[in-house]
Design brief:
The protein has 413 residues and is of the alpha/beta class. The chain is built from 15 helices and ten strands. It has two domains: 284 residues, TIM Barrel (Alpha-Beta Barrel); 92 residues, no CATH class. Strand 3, helix 3 and strand 4 form a beta-alpha-beta unit.
Length: 413
């Protein structure tokens, strides 16, 4: 027992995650929120009202998210009007979040961004995209000459009107290097300040992320274009969206993309909140206030009619909820020591209190007396042995966690 740490020791948790840690300095990484563009392209969500879009934009700003893609203003009048309104909100409320918009590599999609920038009096970053993978080129009957021409025209439309341009190659992760190299060089020659590497269909693994970023960096270095930045935009079709984004940071991406709750095309994008959560727990976001992260997720869910799974990390109903007797007993013992820090970590890899949640103890078939006593006391009901045993007996015969009304019925007798 003498080798166990003292209760106030910093060694209560041995963190294998920090052994040989390879992370680069996280302070240089920017977060780019795609909720109001790629996120609402999900076929099952509702395009939020402008009031909800403004609220989400404010929450992005409060969370310290650096930039946001807020729509495709060239697609229709409502999109144009909403983007313009959000840009004016940034100006009027002096928000620090930078504004970007997306469009195809055609001048007709870029010029509405120029118009909005001029009307709102704010820079709008142009994210102009084109497919680059062999499978897409074959389906569209495209060729490299056409890709180069269209890309140059769209980039010129933004640059000549004083806007910064990010050149986006769709499906970059499945594109051939002999095509990407001339496309990237062409974009840089025409003034693009960013190259966005896209895992459009969720094909990438961490090895692919590393190889693609290293390849892109070599093109930039070979051109002496040290001011050109690299973005990573990932999807989650293999369930690797979050992992790939974290590896992209490690491998040197300057900006990583995500959406609230990971909403987006098909199964979605990198979840912004889980990326921020993991970086916070890794000690990479010191001083960045994430107290509104839960509200951000709940607002996105409500505004888009996108339900949150009960087992979803941080936000889900069961994220900090247990009915297992052993787990509950450990949490209660920690709380009885008056140590909320300990109680929040004894059976949780994510401290609930850090993100505005709390540990919840329920009563079910695998519960013990400690669950019942805690449950009753937390509702100002004084437990006694007869009542506790009556509730346990009911729980043991049940096939589910007891609802509040079921327990209260036993209390009232």
């Amino acid at each position: 027992m003498s080798n166990l740490p003292a209760p106030d020791s910093d060694e209560l948790i041995y963190d294998w995650n920090q052994v040989g840690r390879r992370y680069p300095p996280f302070g240089k990484v920017e977060f780019f929120d795609e909720t109001l563009r790629d996120g609402i392209q999900n076929p099952s969500v509702r395009d939020p009202s402008i009031e909800d879009k403004l609220k989400i934009l404010h929450l992005m700003n409060d969370l310290g998210i650096h930039a946001a893609d807020i729509g495709l203003p060239g697609s229709n009048k409502r999109a144009f009007d909403d983007v313009l309104r959000m840009c004016r909100e940034v100006v009027d409320q002096k928000l620090s979040v930078k504004i970007a918009c997306a469009g195809r590599t055609v001048a007709a999609d870029v010029l509405p961004m120029v118009e909005i920038s001029q009307k709102a009096g704010i820079p709008v970053e142009v994210y102009t995209f084109i497919g680059s993978s062999p499978i897409r080129v074959l389906a569209e009957d495209w060729n490299l000459e056409m890709l180069l021409k269209r890309s140059a025209e769209a980039i010129d439309a933004g640059v000549k009107n004083g806007l910064e341009v990010c050149y986006v190659t769709e499906d970059t992760i499945r594109s051939r290097p002999e095509v990407l190299a001339p496309l990237f060089k062409n974009a840089i020659d025409h003034g693009a300040k960013r190259l966005c590497l896209c895992d459009t269909v969720g094909h990438a693994t961490p090895d692919g992320v590393r190889n693609l970023i290293n390849f892109t960096r070599s093109i930039i270095a070979g051109m002496g274009a040290n001011d050109v930045k690299v973005d990573w935009h990932g999807h989650n079709d293999r369930g690797l969206g979050l992992v790939n984004a974290l590896f992209a940071i490690e491998y040197g991406a300057d900006r990583v993309h995500g959406t609230g709750l990971g909403i987006g095309e098909r199964v979605g994008n990198t979840p912004m909140e889980l990326m921020l959560l993991n970086l916070k727990l890794a000690g990479a976001l010191e001083g960045q206030d994430l107290s509104k992260l839960l509200e951000y997720c709940q607002t996105v869910s409500r505004a888009t009619d996108f339900p949150v799974a009960i087992n979803y990390p941080l936000v889900g109903a069961d994220a900090f909820r247990t009915s297992t007797g052993v787990h509950a007993a450990a949490i209660i013992k920690a709380q009885n020591k008056g140590d909320q820090w300990l109680a929040d970590r004894i059976y949780s890899g994510v401290p609930a209190g850090m993100f505005g949640r709390k540990q919840e103890i329920e009563i079910g078939p695998m519960s013990g007396a400690s669950n019942v006593n805690f449950w009753l006391k937390s509702r100002n009901i004084e437990p006694n042995q007869e009542l506790v045993q009556k509730i346990i007996a009911k729980a043991k015969l049940s096939d589910h966690v007891l609802r509040e009304d079921e327990v209260l019925a036993l209390v009232s007798g």
